[in-house]
Amino acid sequence: MNRSFIHFTFAFFLTLLLNFNVKAQTTIKKIDNVWTLMVDGKPFEVKGATFGYDKHVEHYDRYFKDLNFLGVNTIRTWATGKNTLKLLDAAQAHGIKVMVGIWMRHGRPGMEDDDSFNYLEDKKGMEVMYNGAIETVEKYKDHPAVLTWGIGNEVYLNMTTDEEKEAYSILLEKICSKIKTLDPDHPITSVEAWTFGLEWWEKLVPSIDIYGLNSYGPGAGVLASEIEKRGIDKPYVITEFGITGEWDIKQTKNEIKVEPTDQQKYDAIATGYHDWIKNKPACLGVYVFHYASGNAFISPWLFTHHKTMYRPQYWAIREAYTGLKPINNIPIIETFEFANSNYDSGLWIPAILKISDIENENLDVSFYYNQRTGSRKRRDQINPLNYRATGNGGYLIQVPKEDGPIKIYVNVKDTYNNVGIASTSVVASDKDAKNRTYLVPKARLPFYVYKDGDDLPYFPSAYMGNYKAISVDTHSKNDVYSGSASLKISYNQVYDWYGLGLVDPANDWGDILGGYDISEATTFSFWAKASNRNVTAKIGFGLIGKDKPYPDSAKKTIEVKLTTKWKKYTIKTKNLDLSCIRSGLVIFSSGNRVEHQIYFDDVVFE
Q1: How many helices (H) and strands (E) does the chain have?
Q2: What phi and psi values does residue 397 have, to the nearest 5 degrees?
Q3: What does the pLDDT read at residue 113?
Q4: Residue 46: enclosing H or E segment and its boundaries?
Q5: C-alpha angle 604/440/513, rounded to 5°?
C-alpha cells in the first residue's frame, strides 16, 4: 500500500477524532456533601480572575501566558463582542477556561453604570436581550474553552421595586431555561452583588445551576453561612473578589472614604483566599477582580495594574493560587499626609512622605488627585498634580483649582515596573470652581469625540426621526481618513428625516449628569464624506435643551453639502459655553430619494 496514502488516512482519522472530542463538558456534582465543578469528568477548582483586556487582541498570547504564571485557570467576562471568538481561542491555547458573560441591562443608574431600563414596560428591549443571549449560546456553546455562562451582573442591586425585580426574574428564567435545552454541557451562572439575588433566584429562577456572588473583603467569608441559613442546596462561585470596596468603607477623612493600604490589598487576596473562600463546601472558587490596567479611580484600588505597572493585587493572586511570593516587591509607602486639611487653590504645600523599597531600587515619585463629587466620569477621573522636589528628599504639591474635598495620591515606582500607591485628602478652596454649574470631568485637549472607534467618550445612542432605518458602525474599515477606522452612519431609506447623537451617558436624554468640560477649546472640527453626491446634513454638537435637568451648555451645528471625498469642516467655539458638552457629535439628514452612508473621522475639540 502507498505510504503517503497511509499517512493521509491516519491524519484524516486523527483529525476526525480530535474534532469529535474537542468540546469540553462542564458538570456539577455533590461528593460527600461538597459541591464540585467537573470538567470532562475531572475536578476543577475555580482559580479565576475577571478579564479586562478583551480589546487588546494583539496581546492575548502575552496576557494568557501571564495568567498561567499567576496560577489562574479561568477568566470571567461580562459580555461578548467582536473579539470573543479570538479570546476563547487564545484561552484554549493556554489551558484557561472562560465564564462567558451575557450582559443584562440595569433597571436604574446606580452602582454599575448610568444605564436605565424599564423591565415593566419595555417588551421590545427585553426581546432584544433574550435574543442576544440565545444567539451568544448558539454561537459559542461548542467552543472547548467555555466553562459556564454568566448571565447579568448586579441587576437586582440596580433596581428599585419588587415589581421590576419580578419582571427581570421572569425574563431571566426564560433565558436560562432555553439555554438548558440548547446547551446541556455547560452550567448556567447568574451574577449578583452579595446576596441580593438569592430570594428571587430561589423563587422564580430555578434553572440557574450556580449562584454567582460578587463579594469583597471579609464578607466573602460569610457567604457560606448565608447560603446555609437560607437552606439553599446549590453551589456558588464568588464572581468578583478583592479588598473591601469604597461602597462598604465606613472610615472617612475630609468626607472622603479612606482607601485601604497596599499591604491590606495584598493580604485580602493572598490570605483571604485561604481564610474566606477555599474549602467552603458549597463554594466552587473565586474570580479575583480585576486583571486589567487603568488610570481611573478604581484602578489603584482594585486592579492588578495601574497605567501598566504592577500593583500588589497582581502578586497577591500569584501567592493565593501558587503559594509563591513576589519576584520583586512593591515599594512601601510608610507615611503620606499633609500638615493641615484646608488649603487655597494654587498654594504649594509640603507632603509628609516616607518611602522605602526592599530591593533598594531607585524610586520615581509623582502625585495625582481625584474628586469624589459630580458625574460618574468626573468621580472616576485621576488628574496629574503639579509638584516639585525640594532637594532634601521632600516634595511640594500645588493645590489644584478645585473647591471642596479632593483625594490626593502619591505613586512610587521602582525599576521593576512595580508601583506603590497611597492616598490622603485635603479640602481645596477656589471661588471659580465653587461657581461651576455642572461638575463634569475636564477634558484635556485635543479632545477626540471620535478617533479609530476605541474608548469613545460619547456613545451613539440618541436615535431620532426614522431611527429604524439607521445603522451605525463605529469601526468601519471601508473608508478611512486616518488611522484604522472611521464612523459610518447608514440610512437605509429613500425618504423621511433622521438624526443621531453621540452622548454621555449612553441612552440618556438629560436626566443624568454627564458630559465633559471642554472650556479651553476654540474649535470643533471633523472630517466627513458621503457615499453619494448631494447628501446634505446638519452636523455639530449639543442636543439636550434647557428643559432638561442636565442640558448641553451650548449647541452649534452647520449645514454642509457633503461630497464623496474626505473634507474637513470647522466650527469656531471660542465664545461658546463649553462647560458641559454631553452631546459630542450630532447629525441630522434625510433620505432625499436615495439611501446613503455618511463617514466621519478625527472629530475633535481643540
Answers
A1: 13, 36
A2: -120, 150
A3: 82
A4: strand 46-51
A5: 105
266 three-state secondary structure: helix
Q: Which one-letter amino acid corresponds to residue 402?
A: E
Q: Is 554 within 8 Å of 542 (Cβ atoms)?
A: yes
* HSE-up (13 A, CA, CB side) for residue 273: 27
Answer for the pair 535, 549: CB distance below 8 angstroms, yes or no. no
How far apart are the C-alpha atoms of 518 and 577, rounded to whole Å? 9
The helix or strand, by DSSP H or E, that contains position 188, with its residue range, turns out to be strand 188-193
Q: Grid coordinates representing 129? A: 436581550
Cell numbers 484602578 correspond to 299
Exposure string (b/e) for 510-522, b if CB count within 10 Å is 16 or more?
Answer: bebbbbbbbbebe
Strands of the 332-337 sheet, one edge to the other: 332-337, 348-356, 395-398, 387-389
| Residue pair 509/515 in contact by the 8 Å Cβ criterion | no
Q: Could you give phi then psi for residue 526, rounded to 5 degrees? A: -155, 150
3-state SS record for 126-168: HHHHHHHHHHHHHHHCCCCCEEEEEECCCCCCCCCCHHHHHHH
pTM over 0.85: yes
Least confident of 178-187, 199-208, 592-601: 592-601
Which residue, 594, 473, 476, 485, is CA-closest to 532?
594
Please check whether residue 214 is in contact with residue 169, taking contact to mean a CB–CB distance below 8 angstroms. no
Terminal C-alpha separation, the chain: 75
108-156 pLDDT tens trace: 888 778 888 999 999 999 999 999 999 999 999 999 999 999 999 999 9
Give how far Cα 60 sits from Cα of 66, 93, 119, 502, Å.
10, 10, 37, 30
C-alpha 399/C-alpha 296 separation (Å) is 20
Whether 590 and 562 have beta carbons less than 8 Å apart is answered as no
Q: C-alpha cell of 82?
A: 467582536
Residue whose C-alpha is closest to residue 374's, from 555, 543, 504, 261? 504
Sheet containing strand 382-384, edge to edge, reads 342-344, 419-429, 404-413, 364-371, 382-384
Cβ contact 283:234 at 8 Å: no
Question: How many other CB atoms are there within 10 angstroms of residue 21's CB atom?
Answer: 10
Q: Please state at what angle helix 312-322 crosses helix 60-70, rounded to 10 degrees.
A: 60
